[in-house]
Amino acid sequence: MQTTPTDDPLDVATFSTSTQQRRYTTAMEQIAANRTPGTPVRVYISAAPRAMNSPKWDNWIAQIIEELPDGVEILHYRNAFTDDRPYDWDRLVEGIDGLVIVGKQKRAGSRVYLLGPIARLELRSLIARKPVLLFGHSLGLIPVIDCKSQVLAPEEAPRLKLIAPKRWQRDTMTLASALNALTPRSTAEAEAKPDVPVHLAHPFAAPPR
Fold first, then answer.
1. Contact in structure between 37 and 189 (CB atoms under 8 Å)
2. pLDDT digit string (tens) for 57-96?
3. From CA 194, how far away is CA 110, in angstroms rounded?
4. Quick one: which H or E segment has residue 135?
5. What value does the mean pLDDT take over residues 164-184?
6. pLDDT for residue 121 is more than 80
7. In this model, does residue 198 exceed pLDDT 70?
């Protein structure tokens, strides 16, 4: 379907190039193919205390779970870290398979989401290796590769702004491939469809600074 051109730089379906989308999709397919049957799939939901203390938090968690594949184990700050096991991202990150970012919405209905310094670092640690998705409150899950990123001051603890494209649609190949990469595999499925190795080296574009 043809669309009418506009001068709005945000009036796009994605901010990634077709080449980046193809590389991303291929990389997600490789993650799915390499998943060991029967192993758990863990997704960490990155959210600031303000978001977790929001009366909408339980609804957001429920929506995220509904949009993720069945059988995914959900982790977040409150169930991953305790008084006896304090925050240690370097330890946790090697045991998770994906990341969902819950940013601070600039205003109700906005497609602009703000990430604090900790969320930015969590995103950077996974963006080039595993599925990383932004939770758009009215848009659902959006692969960060489809968003526009901008680093914000202060320099000693920079924040990150993520902008969702205006024409974002949920039936995109990037989202489908990311969700496929987060789908647990059963033993029966693996026996019916053996893996085909594919070599990939650094398939993603450079992560947000």
1. yes
2. 999 999 999 999 999 999 999 999 988 889 999 999 999 9
3. 44
4. strand 132-136
5. 95
6. yes
7. no
The closest alpha carbon to 99, from 57, 79, 70, 128, belongs to: 128
E strands, the chain, in order: 42-47, 73-76, 98-102, 104-105, 112-115, 132-136, 140-143, 148-152, 159-163
Give Rg (Cα) of the chain. Answer: 17
Q: Which tokens in the block code for residue 33? A: 């193919």
Three-class SS of residue 112?
A: strand
Cβ pair 123, 144 in contact under 8 A: yes
Tokens for 25? Answer: 């999709």
pTM (2 decimals)?
0.84
Question: b/e for 42-70, b at 16 or more Cβ within 10 A?
Answer: bbbbbbbeebbeeeebeebbeebeeebee
